[in-house]
Amino acid sequence: MSSTLLPPGGRTRLRLVTEGTRTGSARAGRPTRSDHARSAAARAAAARAATGRRVPGNQRPRRRPPRGPRRRALASSRRRLRMGVLVMALLLLVLAGRLTQLQGFNAATYARQAENQRMQEVTLPAVRGEITDRHGATLAQDVDARSIYANPSLIGDPAAVAEKLSPLVGQPKDTIEKRITRDPKLLFVYIARGLDPAVGAKVKKLELKGVGVLDERRRVYPNDTVGAGVIGYTRFGDNDLLVGNGGIELAYDGVLRGKDGISRLETDPAGREIPSAHNSEKAPVEGSNLRLTLDTDIQWEAQTAIADAVRENQASAGTIVIMNPRTGDILAMADSPGFDPNNVGAANTAALGNRTTAFAFEPGSVEKVIPMAAALDRGLITATTPVTVPPSIRRGGSPIGDSETHGTLQLTAAGVLAHSSNIGTVLISEKVGAAGLEATMRDFGLGQPTGLGFPGESGGQLAPSTKWSTSQAATIAYGQGMSVTALQMATVYATIANGGVRMTPRLVDAIGPSGGAMVPMPRAPGVRVVSEQTARTLSDMLEQVITTNGTAPAAAVPGYRVAGKTGTAYQIVPSCGCYYGKDGFSYVSSFFGYAPADNPRAVIAVVLDNPKGEHYGGLAAAPAFQKVMTFTLATLGVPPAGSAAPHLPLTQPGAADDAEATGQTTAGGAGGDAASPPGGSPTDAAGQGTSPAAGGSPPSG
After folding, report:
1. Residue range 135-169, pLDDT digits in tens
2. Would you call 429 a catalytic residue per the annotation?
3. Paired sense of beta strands 119-124 and 16-17, if any
4. pTM as predicted
């Protein structure tokens, strides 16, 4: 038996524990659960007793530090299992939700996206329609071609690749290497385009890494420069498809291009077609063919003639247009300088247009047929009406004279036209009046596009007569102070040649599918401008211009009757808006005419821009007219004249001989084109007034 004695002052009771009451655990020396309880109770009692008594001296009772939070054991396998199951359940729940979203709600969307990744759409370019001349000779066509491209990011040795490609693609090695190395981040760059398929095959055999070959189409112009200004050219547009970029190629691009096809195919991630996959294809529809009114042989002759005329007369440029007056069909339109549509990149940009329709100029004396026609049609004059021509006249304070100094002349209306008298033309025009003259000019088609529908066609400039000053009304009568194109003036002469009926110019004769029948294009109905009698009388008057007493004997075609008119006009100098610049005067020399005069089959206009040699229309332009007209009549199989040319008096009865009366010389065919140094009041092309620097009258033809 043992006992524990507590301090006397305490309130605790004495607990007696007999050894006989101990459990087996106590006997074995291990604390029992009751032992733990008693120990805890004893400690609690001791603590209570200590608080009630004073500790002697400076000693303070010890206090047991507070216990921290009780820690749970983490090594329990049961707890780990529970946590693992919970995490897996959460993951499975998230995965099930995502699968539900993908396969339940967004299944169609993702299916489409997957299909789009596999499906590739390839544009199948339609074969562009052919362009032919009136006889079916090919002027433009599509052919198979190959382009060579590179992926710079895959090319390890650009210099070696460039060296192998250079002889095949016809480009310098350095040029190819620069394209490859220009930006290493690029994934695609063209090296060459429009190559022959055989070249593409040779490049494929090289098996150069990073270099590939693509199939494409290219436009070929078999006759090179022939008709280039009319036909136009193409370029690569959207999706690298050929589109028109000038001339007929541009005007009829929608007809020529056709409809592109589409090929849909499934590919693997490397871009290879999956053979067993479902593929579809919509075949392209070929473009329609165009048959033009051009005659290739006449076109070639016209281009040769105008190039020779430009060179021989040191002109800046020149143009020729040839028309059938009965139909309005254009047989040729030729410019110099020209270009090769097979190599547009090497062409002078100034030569890429069409001067016949775009270059507007002051026509000068070739326009004198209009006031003559207006006066004849109104019955104000006849071919033999006497016209007294003084040495000079003054209109609006400005003097007007002829190209040659002369006294008072006693001419007829036919003589005024044959000698190209400015003064005589003004006097006849004043019988018509400004309003009447403007009306007739517009009836002939001036001041507006011809209706050809050619891209970039100019309508020239013709101000309303209500805005003409007195001096401008006079100068417009002889072709200064307004502007026209070569095609516009050609239609004026075609109208006279066609008995006074104006036909709209035509370039496209028929349209049809490849291998199918061609459908003729409708012709616009003719519009009567002057009476048939007026046209016949005016034609007879124009025949006098070609005689030795006229201004253009150099235009005569042996065996045929020819009618026409010369023109030598001042050209506006853009830097000063005047006729007389730092280099002196600039001119536009021209000749407009037709043959046979008794049964016109062809109208030809020749215009030279700023010739520096002979600048008179009778000397510079007339010879080119004669050359081309001779060839054209032979090509068309036109027989010689069946009647003699009329002879109209050029001077009044009893007047002096023509040459003596005018003081002119017909040597060399200069005639009235032999302009003396001018001094007068020419107006600018917009009709804005006079040019003080010019001083004097424009040349008379």
Report:
1. 999 999 998 888 898 888 888 888 999 899 999 98
2. no
3. unpaired
4. 0.77
Contact by Cβ (8 Å): 608, 590 = yes
Interatomic CA distance for residues 88 and 54, integer angstroms: 63
d(CA 341, CA 516): 27
Residue 89, CA distances (Å) to 74, 96, 254 in order: 21, 10, 65
Task: Answer yes or no: are the C-beta atoms of 298 and 331 closer than 8 Å.
Answer: yes
Nearest to 596 by CA among 553, 648, 539: 539
Rounded Cα distance, 253 and 453, in Å:
13
Cβ atoms within 10 Å, residue 96: 10
3-class secondary-structure state, position 431: helix
| CA–CA distance, 337 with 307 (Å, rounded to integer) | 7
The predicted pLDDT at position 527 comes to 96
Rounded-to-integer distance, Cα 525 and Cα 630, Å: 30
Angle formed at CA 245 by CA 239 and CA 247, multiple of 5 degrees: 150
Closest by Cα among 356, 371, 377 to 294? 356
* Separation between Cα atoms, residue 7 and residue 243, nearest integer Å: 119
User: Measuring CA to CA, how many Å separate 412 from each of 421, 503, 581?
Assistant: 11, 31, 36
Q: What is the mean pLDDT of residues 455-472?
A: 94
Tokens of 272: 């290879």
Residues whose CB is less than 8 angstroms from the CB of residue 512 and which lie 6 or more positions away in sequence, other chains included? 288, 289, 291, 518, 519
DSSP secondary structure string for all residues of 303-351: HHHHHHHHHHTT-SEEEEEEE-TTT-BEEEEEEES---GGGGGGS-GGG
Instruction: Considering the candidates 336, 365, 465, 471, report the single residue annotated as catalytic.
Output: 365
| β-sheet bridge partners, residue 120 | 265
In whole angstroms, give the CA distance from residue 664 to residue 403. 9
- Indicate the range of 12-16, 241-245, 466-470 predicted with least confidence: 12-16
- What SS3 class is residue 419? coil
List the structure tokens of 677: 């140094």
Greatest Cα pair distance, the chain, in angstroms, is 186
Say if CB 357 and CB 459 are below 8 A apart.
no
Three-state SS at 247: helix
- What is the number of other CB atoms lying within 10 angstroms of the CB of residue 160? 13
CA 656-662-666 angle, to 5 degrees, is 105
Classify residue 544 by its DSSP letter: G
Strands (E) in 455-601, as ranges, are: 501-502, 508-512, 519-520, 527-528, 563-570, 580-581, 584-585, 587-595
Task: Kindly report the number of other CB atoms within 10 A of residue 188's CB atom.
Answer: 10
- Read off the pLDDT of each residue in 650-663 and give the average, rounded to a whole number: 63
Rounded CA separation 43/63 (Å):
12
Q: Is 378 exposed, middle or buried (0-12, 13-18, 19+ CB in 10 A)?
A: middle
Report the pLDDT averaged over residues 230-242: 82
- Say if CB 118 and CB 277 are below 8 A apart: yes
State which amino acid sits at residue 486. A
What is the structure's pLDDT at 570?
87
Number of helices (H) and strands (E), helices first, in the chain? Answer: 22, 27
